[in-house]
Amino acid sequence: MTASGRRSGRRGGSSPGELLRLIMDGRATTRTALAEVTGLARSTIAQRLEPLVSSGLVQETETGVSTGGRPPMVLTFNRAAGVILVADIGATLVRVALTDLAGTVLARTSQELAVAAGPEIVLGEVQARFDELLAQVGRADTDVRGIGIGVPGPVEFARGVAVSPPIMPGWNDYPIPVPFAARFHAPVLVDNDVNIMALGEYERCWRDKVNDLLFVKIGTGIGAGLIVDGRIRRGAQGAAGDIGHIRVVGADHVVCPCSNVGCLEAVAGGGALARQLREHGKQAAGPAEVVDLVRQGDPDAVGLVRGAGRQLGIVLAGLVNLLNPAVIVVGGRLANVDQQLLAGVRESIYSRSLPLATRNLQIVRSQLGENAGIAGAAALVLEHLLTPDAVDARLASGGLAGVTGASAATG
Ligand SMILES: [Zn+2]
Question: From 349's CA, which of 114, 143, 280, 323 has a CA 20 to 30 Å away?
Fold first, then answer.
């Protein structure tokens, strides 16, 4: 089908991609219902369903419920028509999962691995874990419809590369999608780890309730992901949300690894808090020990986390005034002591943001926790594959089954 055919399909009521959406949402699950909802003739419905059925994305089965006459045939989205592979690469841990086409995790694993080991080693391990998961669920390489990868650094999304990532030596401009695209002949999407967490939390927990969400990750470092009008916003180059390097007051003596002074992350990140605890003579290698000490009621740790919450809150208050989000979701390792952290965050935000912006503002802990990245990476790929525009574009360029284009630069 040509691009103009797609457009006329939409004008006529529904393109194949839009019919798929109606079926997936359960708004129309028979040919008769599709004709009623779209106003299209049954012959047109049949024509537009054909590629969806022949590709296996849509199945047509008897209901078994007969009301006299022939039992009606029901159309369902076939979530088993392929699988998605996702990897959430963190600073020291890689989480890998295999999902169906509804984003349900069918198999998962994780591995301690420093991202600083470099792209060849880390991506080689990810490939090996993908192999294991495919074997575990009895699927072949040709069943893979898309791959989503999150990495802990700034990403130029259109090219799928990390750009000058501070904690990822050897990854600058490395073509992450290439080895996966070459092997699986499927689209490979790469994004920043906080963006995929934001997307996961939004898709799984908030999509039906709000349009504007700010996700903040506070682990070793600090970053944010923005959902505006229901869509992730990456900015012009993909660097949006890097709030860890906003300067905070009263910290001009603190040098950040980015070489500036007084960065939020260098003062209030989990790494910075651990360092301050060590200066108090406490055993704290990183954010995990900070969390442990707070849970044990260590007064230094509790005070530091609450203070970090206030510093974070001051930066977030500025973002609230700028963006007016409906909800701020706080995730990352330090969200495990949300009571202490969020007390400080709320204190600063409510005293420094405009009343109208905070009137209905919710400030909550991540519900998905450590699974947010996996959920978001799957959501990223599924949006790329199954939105009406994406389905219609792939039909226009040659079909839905198997080969979905090996390019990473999918925009
Ligand atoms: Zn910095």
Answer: 280
